[in-house]
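Working notes for the structural subgroup meeting. M.R. asked for a predicted model of this chain before we commit to crystallization trials. I am recording the input and output together here so anyone reviewing the notebook later can reproduce the run.

Input as submitted:
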Amino acid sequence: MATLILPAPAKLNLFLHITGRRADGYHNLQTLFQLLDQGDELHFTPRHDGQVTLRCNLSELETPDNLVLRAAALLKNKASPAAGVDIYLDKQVPMGGGLGGGSSDAATALVALNQLWQLGLTKAELAALGLQLGADVPVFVHGQTAFAEGVGEQLKPVSLAEKYYLVVTPDVHVSTAVVFQHPDLPRNTTALTLAQLLNSDWKNDCEALVKQLYPEVALVLDWLIEYAPSRMTGTGASVFAEFPDEFSARQTLHKLPSQWRAFVAKGVAQSPLWTELKDAV
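Returned structure, recorded in token form:
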């Protein structure tokens, strides 16, 4: 079989509410995952000696604990001994930005290797495996913009109007662990129904704390808010501004200070991963 090339789309959290802290130390969330038409790309070349390798355009990601290799290991247990693959990861999504790049890469690996190795696992089975790797992996496996609860694994597909987003990432790394362990993080936002949330003003409960801890994130938000409604995604450091059309988003991109990394993406209801997989088989 020829090399299978598939996308690993980024995501935004259009809102992120923290509704409580669980006994296991994790937090209960309510969030809306918006999939994007931009992200990483992975190449899968089958081999028949049982070996699994990973190369990346960023050599520092070529490590055994990369989620792509961990995803492959979960499926290797279910495949024939001869099943192997050479994987190339073209990393474009900024790391540590709250855009879900690593989780999306893992999801694409699960979906691709399920196909290449002819394992016949369902989306639900792949999502359950993905949850072992991270709470965000299942939404990328299912491949639909979705409302999420629990730690982010309880998903309900949502249909939203398609919008364009200018996504900006300052040169800081926000530690998710530091944010979620911080005593000043709000943890008691009232849980609402999806219908209530879709008719509410959206916010990110991590944003005020991250702005305080990482002034560069505050600078980006203060700049973007002059042009369009803007919020942080996940625990940051990436922030996004929402536009009704691509032209408006690109106009603002051209005005952006050069020290910030940025891209324009369209919000999509269906993941390009599944669209391109159908075209490839």
